């Protein structure tokens, strides 16, 4: 029978991340890439801005508006606002055409609960999807990084995002072992805020901390160390103040977080079946996720594990490319879809 909806349907794949959400449209590639942030009017409870526009409001909003990230530590902290966010992304990807009912594949964190799975599915269906399939982020990341996930060989992928670090060993289209810790980029930003507060009595915002991390943050000594000016509020005098902070200091601030990430990798290696370990010795570890871009983190992991370590081509888009590939590989999608 001729299906009206099928005829109009426009398949999309979504990487629903703690920090960023990306949408991949079939035949087009990545069409949206925006922060997972919603600005809410606290009087009416209604959203007033999404994505880039809402992120620009973080820490700068008047009392009546609050900018929130509905996903925290890799899980859904606020279902209602997550639904608003999904609606925004799905509608925008479909050019706000209400007749379009896409088939959607969504990458979700490995540690997602049954209730959260249902919430993501229900939200997507309620905003117009005709079918929703969930896949796990580490698997999508491995596919996006071009690893031979269906082969009987061990592949290790480490996805270091905003809220979570997920370490997974994949073989025969299954996750053989995975470890997920709620420590990643957000924790690094928080560590920088605490360090600057403790050492300089200077209060800085999350956005400033993230900029410091991206410009001079590192996990291992840099060839040439750097210094940046940091602006914030002096906690003693209560006035705006400027301080100079070095890359060595920021490395100190990040040391604990980096240690936790390395430790998660080490524990996963210890739990990996020996046959697959042998493959990992040959193939090494693939890093992905935005926080894998922390300077010299690959080098640090290589030194600590003694294994070859490589960064995926574009760590911020690997998961989206992986779910995007699944739009046209239904056989693989069937094997890896989560119930
Ligand atoms: N050059 C960089 N150096 C260090 N960190 C970076 C860099 N670029 C981006 N990041 C960090 O990467 C994180 C976002 O990564 P990504 O978009 O992969 O996360 P996500 O998929 O939204 O999160 P999750 O996987 O936890 O759900 C942020 O914490 C951001 O600050």
From TrEMBL:
<keyword id="KW-0963">Cytoplasm</keyword>
<keyword id="KW-0067">ATP-binding</keyword>
<feature type="binding site">
    <location>
        <begin position="290"/>
        <end position="293"/>
    </location>
    <ligand>
        <name>ATP</name>
    </ligand>
</feature>
<protein>
    <recommendedName>
        <fullName>Cell shape-determining protein MreB</fullName>
    </recommendedName>
</protein>
<dbReference type="GO" id="GO:0000902">
    <property type="term" value="P:cell morphogenesis"/>
</dbReference>
<comment type="subunit">
    <text>Forms polymers.</text>
</comment>
<dbReference type="InterPro" id="IPR004753">
    <property type="entry name" value="MreB"/>
</dbReference>
<dbReference type="Pfam" id="PF06723">
    <property type="entry name" value="MreB_Mbl"/>
</dbReference>
<dbReference type="InterPro" id="IPR043129">
    <property type="entry name" value="ATPase_NBD"/>
</dbReference>
<comment type="similarity">
    <text>Belongs to the FtsA/MreB family.</text>
</comment>
<dbReference type="GO" id="GO:0005524">
    <property type="term" value="F:ATP binding"/>
</dbReference>
<feature type="binding site">
    <location>
        <begin position="162"/>
        <end position="164"/>
    </location>
    <ligand>
        <name>ATP</name>
    </ligand>
</feature>
<keyword id="KW-0133">Cell shape</keyword>
<keyword id="KW-0547">Nucleotide-binding</keyword>
<dbReference type="GO" id="GO:0008360">
    <property type="term" value="P:regulation of cell shape"/>
</dbReference>
<comment type="function">
    <text>Forms membrane-associated dynamic filaments that are essential for cell shape determination. Acts by regulating cell wall synthesis and cell elongation, and thus cell shape. A feedback loop between cell geometry and MreB localization may maintain elongated cell shape by targeting cell wall growth to regions of negative cell wall curvature.</text>
</comment>
<dbReference type="InterPro" id="IPR056546">
    <property type="entry name" value="MreB_MamK-like"/>
</dbReference>
<dbReference type="GO" id="GO:0005737">
    <property type="term" value="C:cytoplasm"/>
</dbReference>
<feature type="binding site">
    <location>
        <begin position="210"/>
        <end position="213"/>
    </location>
    <ligand>
        <name>ATP</name>
    </ligand>
</feature>
<feature type="binding site">
    <location>
        <begin position="18"/>
        <end position="20"/>
    </location>
    <ligand>
        <name>ATP</name>
    </ligand>
</feature>
């Amino acid at each position: 029978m001729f299906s009206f909806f099928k005829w109009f349907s426009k398949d999309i794949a979504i990487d629903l991340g703690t920090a960023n959400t990306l949408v991949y449209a079939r035949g087009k590639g990545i069409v949206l890439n925006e922060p997972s942030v919603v600005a809410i009017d606290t009087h009416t409870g209604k959203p007033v801005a999404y994505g880039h526009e809402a992120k620009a409001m973080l820490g700068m909003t008047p009392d009546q508006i609050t900018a929130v990230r509905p996903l925290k530590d890799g899980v859904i902290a606020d279902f209602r606002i997550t639904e608003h966010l999904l609606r925004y992304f799905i509608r925008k990807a479909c050019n706000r055409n209400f007749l379009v009912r896409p088939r959607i594949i969504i990458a979700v964190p490995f540690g997602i609960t049954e209730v959260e799975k249902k919430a993501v599915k229900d939200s997507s269906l309620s905003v117009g999807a005709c079918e929703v399939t969930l896949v796990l982020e580490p698997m999508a990341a491995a596919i996006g990084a071009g690893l031979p996930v269906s082969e009987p060989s061990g592949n290790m992928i480490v996805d270091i995002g905003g809220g979570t670090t997920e370490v997974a060993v994949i073989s025969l289209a299954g996750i053989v072992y995975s470890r997920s810790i709620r420590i990643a980029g957000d924790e690094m930003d928080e560590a920088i805020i605490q360090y600057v507060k403790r050492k300089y009595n200077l209060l800085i915002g999350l956005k400033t901390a993230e900029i410091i991390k991206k410009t001079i943050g590192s996990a291992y000594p840099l060839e040439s160390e750097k210094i940046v000016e940091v602006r914030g509020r002096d906690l003693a005098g209560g006035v705006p103040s400027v301080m100079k902070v070095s890359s060595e200091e920021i490395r100190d601030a990040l040391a604990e977080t980096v240690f936790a990430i390395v430790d998660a990798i080490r524990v996963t290696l210890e739990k990996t079946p020996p046959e697959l370990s042998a493959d990992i010795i040959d193939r090494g570890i693939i890093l992905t996720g935005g926080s894998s871009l922390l300077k010299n983190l690959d080098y640090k992991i290589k030194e600590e594990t003694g294994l070859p370590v490589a960064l995926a081509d574009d760590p911020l888009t690997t998961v989206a490319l992986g779910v995007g590939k699944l739009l046209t590989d239904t056989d693989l999608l069937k094997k890896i879809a989560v119930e």
